[in-house]
Fold:
Amino acid sequence: MSNSIMYQEDGYVLLETDQPEQLLAAAELQEKLQTVIQSHWDELSAGLRQELEVRKTLDQQARYLRHNYCELKLDSGEYWQWYVVRFQK
Structure:
């Protein structure tokens, strides 16, 4: 049986084009992904746009992206990569 700690999310590391590494809470990453979806919609691949269009709200689209992907790359060279991290004392 797997340990439940494997499914805990304390936060995320976000790597972004020309930016230093950032540690974000889930809500902060959610906001960031919503912004990316809104501002770069036309630059997303057609397949990804189809997957996201099935979700009714921007919040649902960003949540889907956060839970089912770990990176987003645009033809312009911009990218976002996010990874779950767990904090231990």
Summary: The helical segments are 26-40, 46-53, 58-68. The mean pLDDT is 90. Residues 16-85 form a domain with the Eukaryotic RPB6 RNA polymerase subunit fold (CATH 3.90.940.40).
